[in-house]
Amino acid sequence: MKKFGIIVVATLSFMASFAAIPAATTPTVQAKTKVSVVKKKSMSAQKYQIDQSKAKKAYAYSGTLKKKEFKLSKGHNQTFNATAQESVKVGKKTRVYYYVKSTSNHKLAGWVWHGYLKTPLLSKSAVTKLVASGEDLNPSAALLKQPEAFYGTYNLYLRKQFNMTGKLTTFKNNQARVYVADPAIKPYAQKAMGVWNQALGRTVFVSGTASNHQLVIDTKPAKEWDGLNDGTHLYLSSTALKDKTYMDSVADTPEIRSLYNQYEDIADAYKDAANGSAAQKTYLSQGHTLYDQLIAAQKAAAPSYTNYWEGVLVHELGHSLGLDHTPYLTDIMYAETSDDGFSSSVDGKYNWDAPKDPNDTRRETPTLSQRDVNRAKLGMKLGYW
Description:
It comes from Secundilactobacillus silagei JCM 19001. Helices cover 29% and strands 21% of the residues.
């Protein structure tokens, strides 16, 4: 890194301090203020645009800040390359300036206070390529590090590409108060909330009260679903909760899926065979054998009662964060199909009726995949929580 000595230049002062400069403050020349460049260094070229909301009356300067080179409002919609930076001491305050030059109009060049610069938004084609180059339905680190305006500009596109539901539950300052109306499931709810809080590195879900909450967790009789979230109420099926044998039928492994498919094929063959025929009797025997094997495999792979219901709540809280279903068994947000017939169908990247990772076992514990976490982080960027 090349260093330069202290250079005393012109006399100049600023209207505000470095720590709290008003957005539209413009430097003015006054006497008896000592200005010096205390450090300069080159930097790899980085692209910026002028933040016109902050730089309405500001200028770019010469390297000594002695001369105004151009008014920053002239750089509207221009992209600039920044290739060097310098620290300038004005009186007792120090500010950092970048040397920038327009990529399309080289007459627009000079030293600009870094607070007037912003990272330019990616073009639609660049965003499309970035999404396509990443893992399916998993926002990359680059997508999660874009400027705030990016997520407003590409909200609908990102929502579609990453199977997001949009805003479902109301959050205040990125936080939702959760009231658990049924005391019996409170331990499960606390575990599920903690899983998301830890994964996101912040307290997103906090305990609420009957009079102060954004989301209520309760139970409700149902045979069609285990969990349901409408944005203000999250329900667990009391019917399934009361059935202690329910865990014996929920496991989903490659072996179980294979046995189930074989059983279905034999059942169809049995129906098509002539009544009383030898073939029908053979299919019946094979069907009984496969059924017994299927039941045994489901029991062997059954999750614990506690883990399962905590996992269901983690899934449903994911919907509150703006996540829709995925076709990946290893995601807590997995669903067997993109349209199950009773909940809202997924308006996402594509439809499915089979898992994308058929050689994996379904996640049925209160844990998250990296895809789950990254999509939730994207949900925050998009303003869903």
